[in-house]
Design brief:
Number of strands: 2
Largest sheet: 2 strands, antiparallel
Oligomer: single chain
Order of helices and strands: EHEHHHHHHHHHHHHHHHHHHHHHHHHHH
Radius of gyration: 27 Å
Strand order of the largest sheet: 1-2
Structural class: mainly alpha
Helix content: over 70%
Distance between the termini: 91 Å
Length: about 425
């Protein structure tokens, strides 16, 4: 079974329970990273099957002679099983940074690996791709750049018939993208955006989740607003991303998380947010917010905040756009249920994830700014008291909650002023009529 791994390599330890424990730790670390910062860490797919873990436990560091020997066996072995076994041994050795550096220093090593990747034997192709995946997980940019000769083939194989192979290629590309600008410069003219857009049609959840990861890595590049996001917005990706966030039985949490963060990075770039609003981003995200509020009332799953965080950020940022009014964006959210759902999430964060309270209050601030209907909802739904309960949490939360109160009182004062002005206008009109009579 293929599964994600995030973080640095640790020695392989035997046993099913140990593998499960490590998987839980990785998921917790990923949630923490998503909450606290833009996620630019890499992911590692590795066969965590107990039978493989039990074969050698700790993979050995390989020297030049051993690397050359395994490459030679993989390339010239007489039996396919022997060739595949040589690549398996090489792949395990490449889990170590020392072996990775040895590999890229050897002349012709990458050319040999690419040759095996492009062979007509599926098992050799897969093992060669796994070797590249281990290299892509390196923290050294020189290792990522050594993989440049393989990128065009990885893109080509995104149209493969094997979903496992496509998933592996996507995670490998995602790892390479984040490490080196040279890799991104090569991938863009090679057609990475159209290739990713084609993958979003896949019926396989694992492929879609891997696609979201690769796309999010691409969107976080420093040059993304000028060189990457315009071409993404010109493709079919935005519409399909929003479809992945539609509430309903087909909504997959893992896929939705990846694409919600992708949407967040696009919105933060401010390249063309009116386009996203025109595609119905506000209504889709608003419905998803209602769905999340319903979900937290039914379960105590701590993973729900992983999706709630980017959804809140996307909505908050979109509400600051001038285009919201011109395309009827506010009308898409003019519903008391949105405020009620937000307070359900705030109560959930208060009990389970206090670090996310500022995200929810930021959205509440943007909803109530210049919106008498949403301010009225705070009173009609008796939400002032729950808001007051948040004041002692932290200085940041306190300031943001007070800002909501100020906006509400300010709008009420403005309404009173407008009513007084309208009354004065009526009195003046009556006086003019009386004088003329």
């Amino acid at each position: 079974m293929w599964s994600r791994r995030q973080g640095r390599l640790r020695p392989t330890v035997c046993g099913v329970e140990e593998l499960r424990r490590r998987r839980r730790e990785r998921e917790a670390a990923l949630r923490k990273a998503r909450r606290e910062q833009q996620l630019v860490s890499k992911r590692l797919l590795r066969n965590d099957a107990p039978e493989e873990a039990g074969e050698g436990c700790v993979a050995a560091i390989l020297g030049e002679t051993e690397v050359q020997q395994f490459l030679r066996q993989a390339q010239r072995g007489t039996e396919e099983k022997e060739r595949e076994g040589a690549l398996v041994s090489l792949r395990r050795g490449l889990q170590h940074p020392e072996t990775q550096q040895t590999f890229i220093r050897l002349e012709g090593s990458m050319r040999t690996l690419v040759g095996l990747l492009t062979s007509n034997q599926a098992l050799l192709q897969l093992e060669a791709a796994r070797c590249l995946h281990e290299l892509s997980h390196s923290e050294q940019s020189t290792v990522a750049e050594a993989c440049l000769p393989a990128t065009s083939y990885l893109l080509t194989y995104l149209s493969s018939h094997s979903s496992d192979f496509i998933e592996l290629c996507l995670y490998t590309l995602g790892n390479l993208i984040v490490e080196s600008e040279a890799v991104r410069r090569q991938l863009l003219p090679q057609g990475i955006v159209p290739a990713l857009a084609a993958c979003i049609q896949s019926p396989h959840v694992a492929v879609l989740e891997a696609l979201g990861y690769a796309l999010s890595q691409l969107l976080q590049a420093e040059e993304a607003p000028e060189k990457i996001i315009p071409s993404i917005l010109a493709s079919t990706l935005p519409q399909h991303m929003l479809q992945m966030l539609q509430p309903g039985p087909k909504l997959n949490p893992g896929v939705a998380v990846e694409f919600a963060w992708c949407l967040h990075y696009i919105i933060c770039s401010q390249v063309s947010n009116p386009l996203l609003i025109g595609h119905g981003a506000l209504s889709t995200l608003g419905l998803l917010l209602l769905d999340l509020a319903g979900a937290v009332q039914k379960t105590e799953d701590a993973g729900l905040e992983l999706l709630a965080c980017p959804v809140l950020r996307c909505l908050s940022n979109l509400l600051t756009e001038a285009a919201v009014e011109t395309v009827g964006g506010q009308m898409q959210l003019r519903d008391e249920r949105v405020v009620a759902a937000l307070f359900i999430l705030l109560q959930f964060f208060f009990q389970k994830q206090p670090s996310l309270l500022p995200e929810g209050l930021w959205l509440l601030n943007n909803l109530t700014a210049n919106s008498p209907s949403f301010c009225t909802s705070l009173l009609s739904l008796d939400l002032i008291e729950p808001l007051l309960q948040l004041l002692p949490v932290s200085n940041v939360v306190s300031v943001m909650a007070v800002q909501v109160f100020l906006q509400q009182s300010g709008l009420q004062a403005l309404e009173r002023h407008q009513e007084e002005a309208q009354l004065q206008d009526r009195v003046y009109a009556l006086q003019q009529t009386a004088l003329q009579g």
